[in-house]
Amino acid sequence: MSSPSGSSTLSKPAPRFASIGSPYFGIMLAVMAVVLILSNIGASKGVVLGPIITDGGFFLFPLAYILGDVMSEVYGFKVTRKAIITSFALSVFASLCYWVIIILPGFDDDYGTAKQAAIEGALGPVPQIVLASLLAFLAGQTINSWILVKMKQRTGERSLWARLMGSSVVGEFVDTLIFCSIAASVIGISDAGSFVNYVLVGFVYKTAVEFLFVPVTVLVVGWIKKREPSYGAVAA
User: Fold this and answer.
1) pLDDT tens digit string along 10-23?
2) Could you report the per-residue pLDDT of 69-95, keeping only the tens digit for each?
3) I want to staple 25 with a disulfide (CB 3.0 to 4.6 A). Which of 1, 20, 103, 185 is the partner?
4) Of 99, 94, 66, the residue nearest 207 (C-alpha)
């Protein structure tokens, strides 16, 4: 006997999300922006750990992607895209502040001259790093969020771990390739072998960190979903 609707196939429920009325989103956005700004400063320093070539922001940047995963799962693609754009606007503002600090006249004694040189060395390359991050993070995080939400539309609340891992692989590869292509010259990488090392190490490391923290990310997502009053009230 056929069903009353003439079809035995049940339609998939729309994926559930939350609005941004509670404090949780604001806290995550603030942390993402701070992590991104600090990563941009750290990335201006090349780091050599044995055969591994990376930069000084390597230990911070994966946290921004984990936060992006949590926001995408709980609040959806459009809200996460706003968070990405806001974080980069603040990062660009920070870079402009560094530029103003550098060009302001300082003391002309030995200490003042040394201090000026140190500030220029530490903050001078940051605008190019910001450009690299702007293009890389914007592309990588947007793709990461889009894939995660699209997968959620197919699976609903099930298979969160698969969404987190699948979206991270693509997003991190795009991010790493774009960032390294622009930032390599700033941190002193000039030959092809070192560049390939830089890209592969960055991609493998960031992806491995996200995979390692998937159980923690799943717990955080579940914790926020339970405490987010509007979760389930917003559909894609």
Assistant:
1) 556 678 898 888 88
2) 999 999 999 999 999 999 989 988 988
3) 20
4) 66
H/E stretch holding 46: strand 46-49
Greater model confidence, 74 or 235: 74
Helices (H), the chain: 23-42, 61-75, 77-103, 110-123, 126-155, 160-183, 192-212, 214-227
Structure-token match 């592309």, residue found: 139
Q: Is the CB of residue 22 less than 8 Å from the CB of residue 74?
A: no
Cα–Cα distance measured from residue 53 to residue 34, given in angstroms and rounded to the nearest whole number: 24
Rounded distance, CA 209 to CA 169, Å? 11
DSSP string, 90-145: HHHHHHHHHHHHHHS----SHHHHHHHHHHHHHHTTHHHHHHHHHHHHHHHHHHHH
